[in-house]
Predict the structure.
Amino acid sequence: MNLFLSFLLGWVLLVGAPAPAPASHAREPEIRALTFGFIKLTDMAPLAIALERGYFAEEGLSVTLEAQANWRILLDGVIAGTLQGAHMLAGQPLAATIGYGPQAHIVTPLSMDLNGNGITVSNEVWQMMRPHVPSMPDGRPAHPISAAALAPVVRAFREEGRRFDMGMVFPVSTHNYELRYWLAAGGLHPGLYAPHDASGQIGADVFLSVTPPPQMTAALEAGTISGYCVGEPWNQAAVQRGIGVAVITDYQIWADNPEKVFGLRADFAEAYPNTTRAILRALIRAAMWLDADDNANRRAAAEILSRSDYVGAETEVIAASMTGTFEYEPGDMRDVPDFNVFFRGYATYPFYSDAIWYLTQMRRWGQIPQAQTDQWYADIAASVYRPDIYSDAARSLIRDGLARPEDFPLDSDGFRPPVTLFDGIPYDGRAPNAYIDSLPLGLTGAQRVRDEAQDG
C-alpha cells in the first residue's frame, strides 16, 4: 500500500496537478493576457515603463502594447474589446458614457499624468504675432503669451481672404478644450458644436480641425494649418526642425491640469476586479519611478520612449520637455520642471473635479447641447472617474510596502480645491454652472445652438 501511495503521489506531481491555493489566491488576476492601446505621445510613458521595468509581469500580467493610428480607432478598440484598456484622452470616457460619439460606459480608475501639452504656431504666424507680445528686459518674449496677440493675425488673414486654421487631436481631447480656452480668453471665437453640425466651427474666428499627433508637424510645414495644440514631443519637434514656435504650454494655462487617463470598459472592471487592481498597481509603480528622485529617471525613460514601437521620436526631442525644460523657439530654452508630472501632486488620482471641468467645456462649446444641473455633472463624473477602484489598488501597495500612505489622497471626497486658471477666472468643481456662466464666449445658462445661431 505504501508503494502504491508513493507511486500515486509521484504521478500527481509529474502531471502538475494543482496545489492547494495560497491565501492570496483570491487576489490573483482573473485573466492575465491583456492588450492595451496607446497613441505615440510622451505621456504614454507609464504603460511603456510598466512593461519594460517588469511591473506588469510582477503583478501577474502578460501585457502587449499596440500603437493606434488615431484616437477614434483606439476608442473603437476598447469598446469592441480588442483592447482591454488604453491610454485615453480625459474627455473620451466621459463623451462615450454620455453618448457624444460612440456610446459605451467607459471608466477611468487612474489619471496617467498632469500637463504635457503646448500650442505651436507657424513661423509666419509668429512673426506677425511677435510685435504684439511684451518683451522681458533681455529681449525674449514674456510668458504666458495671450491669444490677444494672435487676434491681429487672424484679422489680417481674413482681410486677405484666408481662413485661419489650427489643428487639435480629437473633438473631446484636452487639446481641443485647452486651445479653445486660450483662444476665447484672447477674444477669438473657436466655434460651436450643435446636434446638426459636429464640425465645431459655427461662428468661428479660428477654425479647428482634427489632425493626428504624429502628423502635426507635417501639416504645419505644408501650410495646411497655421498652428496646433498637441502633446509632446510634437511641439518640440516643430521647434527643433525650425518650422514653428511654441507660444504657450498647458501648464501655463492651468498649472497641474489633468491630461491623459487609463480607460477601460465598466463591465471589464466589474467582471475582473483583481485584474483591474493589478493593472493599476503596475501603472502606479511606473508613475512613481518616472517622478522618483526629482525626475532622475527621465533620461532613461526618454531613451525607452524613443523606440519605434513606442513614440518613435529622437531621444533628444523627447527629453527636451520630459527632463524639465521647454524650448519655445530655437535658443529660448526655459525651465519648466513640472511640464510632465506622472505621480507627485496626486497626479494618478482620478478626481471628480477634473472630470467636471471637461464636462463644463463640452457644455460651453455645444457638445452638451442643453443646460444640465450641478448634480448631473457630479453624477456623470462619479460614474466615469472611479477613485474607489484606485484607492483599493493604492492601499494594497501600501500594505505590501511598495508605497507610503502620504503618496495618496485616500481621505479625499474626490474634489480638488478651487483653482484659478491663467486668465484669472476661478474654477470650483462643486459649482459647474456658475463656472460656465463666468466664462467669456460660448454657451451659458440655458442657451442652445440652433441653425447656426446662438439662441437664448
